[in-house]
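Justification of resources, computational component.

The compute hours requested in this renewal are based largely on the per-chain cost of generating structure records like the one below. Each record pairs the submitted sequence with a full structure-token output. That output is archived, and it is also reused by downstream analysis tasks.
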Amino acid sequence: MSFSGRPLSVVRRSIGSRPTLAVRSVSRAVRLNSTATPRPPPPTVASTAFYALSLALFTGAGYLIGTYSSLPPPASLVESSTAIAHQKAHQPKYGSHSDYTSAISDLRTSWEAKGKGDKISTDDADLESHGISDWSYHDAKKPTVVVWVESTEEVQEVVRIAKKWKVPITPFSGGTSLEGHFSSPFGGISLDISAMDKILRISEADGDVTVQPGVKWEDLNAHLASKGVPLFFPLDPGPGATIGGMVGTGCSGTNAVRYGTAKAEWFLNLTVVLPSGEVIKTRSRARKSSAGWDATKLFIGAEGTLGIVTEATLRLAPLLPTKVAVVSFDGVEEAVRAATEVVNAGFPVQCVEYLDGRTMHAINQGGLAGRQYKPVDSLFFKFQGSDEAMTEVAKNVQKVIKKHGGKNFEFSKSDKEAQDLWQGRKAALWSVLGLRDGARVWTTDVCVPISKLPTLVRETTEDFEKRGITACHFGHVGDGNVHSLALFSNDEELAVVEHAVHDMVERAIRLEGTCTGEHGVGVGKIDYLPTELGEGTVNLMETVKRTLDPSNLMNPGKIYPHIKPQRQ
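The structure output for this chain reads:
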């Protein structure tokens, strides 16, 4: 797809009415019947939905009777062009203004009966904070009502009321989304799960923990440490991220080189409220299972469009000593070659982070790291293991680094030195914000095969500079994931940045990469999916969506480019 020569399809709000984000300090889951044939029990909604899904995916037959219209788009898997044509002709319709009002009335009556009248709000400030983000410049819309929930049962009740009145639901947890995940393009209910923040169970022997979705990964690891549990949850997307949002976006973080992403085996099972209102658990707590396909992964990366996660059982990893190294390079090509050889050599690498020269300059200028670095392209390493093993590793890594022109190799000798060296990586985002007084930042990410990373960074840097954009590039070089932060101060600069970001995403896809490495699709990158995945794959995803959520109530406007609901 190309955005050249035509207006962008998504209209942005003016930045003039938005507050300036202050720079803050860095701190932050049948039984078979016998041969007798008794009358079977009536099927549950979940079993009906998954039966329809099986037909859809494997036989191509059967139609789910939905609520789109008298002739809904097929819920069986048909050829993409046919499915798209049906979808365009029969888009889902939400309730009327009166239906929305009735839904709010039902919610208010129920919550007041629980003594929780203050946990439902239509105040504009609450609607604003639950629909519009200071971190996203995509088209953002407010919900009609915000409801705070504390249990699976309350989520189930909200879903049933929403289903009754055909009112959409948008989940909200940490509010840190960069791609407009909690925007409510059709109004409706913002389901705030931030109060579902309990750690329900810890099993050190089994190396797992069960939590509610509002738990923040940083708080979980701090709690484990306070209890003397020598384990941690290794996914580290960024400060403030919650388990629910991490499931929804299929996140990763700086530890991805060693521990992978949310789509690996870190989520053992999930408790999910389906669009029907039925509650399921995706699988058992066993470390592995070959009991059918993995329903857990169906919801990882689905961004709340297939159901609301209310509990998650997480796999934990051993908490090992770490050492940090920082090294300078003349350019991104040399840095990537060095990082690739270090990773492929099998050294115990936990993180490999690339920061370009401008980012390093920003870190020095901002002073948040408490030290100075060489203001050139750099790699930050974290290694894990015993002190003796890591000392030997440092010697071998340094040999590889020198072969690729690396200079100024610094290796921590103590825990404090490790923390001090790594502080630069932690300070990158806030430091970039300080490059221009009063500027705002557009943050995006893409991911490419590692060998294509130098081309991506070089071409993107050149393109941004030609457009007069001040931008920094850094990210997880060990898996080809780059974050770009582009600064702007007014609407004219915002338009230039927007076009440059679109070109960067197209460039990543052209290099056999993806429009998003870990931030998710949301409303910001939905239009790229047909180009990246192909219409057949998108059709498969939309067939699953129509099967589980025929009324399209769950987080509409995200992921599925051909499903465009309407309000009555």
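Confidence is low (pLDDT under 50) at residues 1-14, 17-45, 47-71. The two ends are 32 Å apart (CA to CA).
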